[in-house]
Amino acid sequence: MAExxxxxxxxxxxxxxxxxxxxxxxxxxxxxxxxxQPDRYIDIDRLHAEVDSTVTLDTVLLVKDAKGTxxxxxxxxxxxxxxxxxxxxxxxxxxxYKMRPKKKTRRKNGHRQELTRVLVKSIQVAGKAIx
Length: 131
Hints:
- The chain is mainly beta.
- The chain has one domain (22-129).
- Helices cover 0% and strands 56% of the residues.
- It has no helices and twelve strands.
- It has strands at 4-7, 24-29, 32-36, 41-45, 54-57, 60-64, 68-71, 79-90, 94-100, 105-111, 114-125, 128-129.
- It is elongated.
- It starts with a strand and ends with a strand.
């Protein structure tokens, strides 16, 4: 399928939900989809990259800028998102408690997800930065 581009709305209606400010991209990373905006940070699953290094994602599903929205099928061709690795962290502790009633069987286990905090440096389409 080909990519679909729709022009930006000229006048928002009063009943429409407020649009996100500025350009954004929806990318796929580690089996999940993330909404990324320039100069914002996000925690994603652990990346094998050094702190302060740059990571480029090319699995961009959607790009929204002032010209309109570009939807990929499945990915937008020529679109990339540059991320800067800020830190490697661990998520909050999640307790897993399993119990079999009337059997005196109980098991308590904890888990902390390994995360990487990244800063979105730029969103590029066909080599031109939209943000």
